[in-house]
Amino acid sequence: MVTMKEIANKAGVSVSTVSLVLNGRDEGRVKSKIADNVRAIATKLGYQSNPLASSLRTGRTHILGFISEEVATTPYAGGMILGAQTAASQFGYMLITVSTDGENSESEEIAALKRYGTDGFLYAKMSNRITHVPSSLAKTPLVLVDATDSLGKIPSVEPDEFQIGYDATTRLVKAGCARIAYVGCLEPLIAQDDRLEGYQAALRDAGLDYDDHLVVNVLNNGPALTAVSDLFDAEHPDGFFCFNDARAWYVYECAARRGLTVGKDISVVGVDNHRVFAETLEPMLTTVELPHFEMGYWAVAKLVSIIEGRSMDDVSWPATTSPAADRRADSGEDPLHADRKGLGEVTESHTISQGLRSARRPFACRTDTTRRFTSID
């Protein structure tokens, strides 16, 4: 194992100088030419720092804890965790991910991570909601992911749900729909309330009247199919904005039972880009993909900035990982309206947009501590 003393002998400097350089404390203390030479020699010799020694010296372990409430088992967790892991690696941290299934399990996992000397925590929820943060995390660096604390004081990142509802509904308006229904959810979620508001605003801006008879909120169960079926028969919508892709399935099923074709007789837009629904429904579903990778990346960047006292302005943002918005399906048909001119290229729109406003300027925020990802650039 290469030591600092060996590097010092090769570079012709003191061990303390090598220590300053390799621990990033050389600015203003060591001439840049000497520092560059020390780094070059360390790289050539294959020097690797000792994390334990570093943690004893700095009081930091460079370990981050990612605590999730069943997030790790959802179809969308991969992108969020990958984004967090990518950022952690780039900032020189190790990310430990744990999934909990209740208050007791959560307390045990938090206690275990603290025993490792974790520098800070990410606390993620399965869907965007207001949450009460465990008291055991009150005095440690913390960022919420896909959640907002009840007092609005903790830094958090969440999708811009209003913009999602607005963009999805506007897409239906541009497809020529005049009676646009909203198939929402019954759970008390921020996403439900804000997407509904976005839907209403898009209708208003398009000069269409909001009709609460065109709104039905359902759970993902058998009665949902009946509720959507009743909506078809009573209101005859020609467009459907669905809270998520799972609810879009009910629309497809009801349309098929009535001999209606999605993309010709009705138009449908979902949310999530859930592969099971988005790519297996026929025609393939137009859906809004949430920026899970970017959310995970930003959360870690923010957490590190809190731990190290650095500015977020210095963060280099990755390009979005969302797939291309427009890809042609084998059938060549548009799942919105194949018979509408100008829409033929949008045959498999997995993302109406990429979900990321900009990597170079602040995103729209609901509070000073909350970063919200919007669905248009």
From TrEMBL:
Entry keyword set: DNA-binding, Repressor, Transcription, Transcription regulation
GO terms of molecular function: DNA-binding transcription factor activity; transcription cis-regulatory region binding
UniProt keyword Endoplasmic reticulum present: no
Record field: compositional bias (Basic and acidic residues): 325-343
Stored SMART domains: HTH_LACI (SM00354)
Domain of life: Bacteria
Domain HTH lacI-type: 2-58
Sequence segments annotated as region (Disordered): 317-361
Protein name: Transcriptional regulator, LacI family
Species the sequence originates in: Bifidobacterium longum
Lineage: Bacteria, Bacillati, Actinomycetota, Actinomycetes, Bifidobacteriales
